[in-house]
Design a protein that fits this description.
The protein has about 350 residues and is of the alpha/beta class. The chain folds into 2 domains: about 230 residues, Orthogonal Bundle (Neutral Protease, domain 2); about 80 residues, Immunoglobulin-like, CATH 2.60.40.1930. The protein is built from 9 helices and 12 strands. The chain is globular, with a radius of gyration of 20 Å.
Length: about 350
């Protein structure tokens, strides 16, 4: 819900955007004039994927209409926040522009989880570490299931971020129920690590059980959903946290600040999902130079040009495109072409 702002860089715009997903029914998007096309693509695909994934995997959905308001301003000290039934994204905020594209996608999914929180707990009674930690964890879990990042990499990032923040030395998780201490910007990392520990001991479905236990006070709901009183969990977590060390994964894909590159680059390792049905989201991934801008052109099975989209690579050179296949797209083998300025690669997948 809260995101620290950093600094501004610009993305390239494109001329022919991908189609709007049929799954956006029930979502009203408002994009400020001048919103860059890759930002719009990330926001739209993030909401569409979150709705589909959490409904399919856990049977949960935001029942009321959703308003997504994307503002090209720096008026907040956050890059996104959620109110009941509404998501606000500040693409003009410095933190958004210095966020790797994968972090942007994760931010949008994170805010969708907060919509589920508001729906189940309109009085916002759950501990803040659990609200932000579950949104952070579940967003990265969804991205792990999409195949864009192993959840263990995110876990390494959380542990490393906590160890690098001396303001948190000796500060227990319980202090983050409503944090007012220095270092509370690490609420996301400590919350996500605590939630990952909860999931290890109780299973991921226990999170949704907890959200739904609105007839109990939060302490009783915690004990019922996770099988341990919250005070007991705090003691367990501090013992776990004291011994937690990164496993050594490369976390450069997630690190702030992220910088774009004006250099043309080679593209390699282009892969696409084998088959995508009409109305579903297509995913194409590739490798290129860190921060490089690349353009994907999508040709429908009948050879018609169906859309183009420029995207920036993450800090490790990984790059992705996630977009809806229109319901009217004919069945057959579709083709994508990717260029980052030096060479062009193709990736094909079946539609239907």
């Amino acid at each position: 819900m809260l995101r620290a702002s950093l600094a501004i860089v610009l993305f390239l715009a494109t001329t022919l955007a991908f189609p709007v997903a049929a799954a956006e029914t029930g979502v009203a998007f408002t994009f400020a004039n001048g919103t860059l096309s890759d930002d719009e693509a990330i926001v739209r695909s993030g909401i569409a994927y979150a709705r589909e994934f959490f409904a399919r995997e856990f049977g949960v959905t935001v029942e009321a209409p959703i308003a997504v308001d994307v503002r090209g301003t720096q008026q907040y000290d956050v890059i996104a926040y959620t109110a009941p039934g509404a998501v606000f994204v500040a693409t003009g905020a410095m933190g958004w522009h210095y966020a790797p594209p994968l972090r942007k996608l994760q931010t949008v999914i994170h805010e969708y989880i907060h919509l589920l929180h508001w729906q189940a707990d309109p009085a916002a009674t759950m501990p803040l570490w659990l609200a932000e930690g579950s949104a952070e964890y579940l967003a990265w879990y969804a991205i792990d299931q999409l195949g864009l990042l192993d959840l263990e990499v995110a876990r390494d990032f959380w542990i490393g971020s906590l160890q690098a923040n001396p303001a948190l030395d000796g500060v227990p998780l319980s202090a983050f129920e409503q944090p007012t201490i220095d270092g509370s910007a690490s609420l996301y990392e400590i919350g996500a690590l605590a939630v990952s520990y909860l999931v290890e001991r109780a299973g991921i479905a226990a999170l949704f059980d907890y959200f739904a236990l609105t007839d109990l006070n939060r302490a009783d709901a915690f004990a019922a959903a996770f099988g341990v009183p919250i005070g007991g969990f705090y003691a367990e977590f501090e013992a776990f946290r004291a011994g937690a060390v990164p496993a050594g994964y490369d976390v450069s894909r997630l690190q702030f600040p992220w910088y774009p590159s004006a250099e043309v680059a080679e593209v390699s390792n282009a892969v696409a999902a084998n088959r995508v049905a009409q109305g579903e989201l297509a995913l194409v991934q590739a490798s290129t130079g860190p921060g490089a801008v690349c353009t994907l052109t999508f040709y429908a099975p009948d050879g018609a040009l169906a859309g183009t989209q420029s995207m920036r690579a993450n800090g490790d050179g990984s790059i992705f495109w996630l977009w809806p296949i229109a319901e009217t797209t004919p069945a057959g083998i579709a083709l994508t072409e990717i260029t980052c300025g030096v060479n062009t690669l193709t990736a094909a997948f079946e539609v239907g």
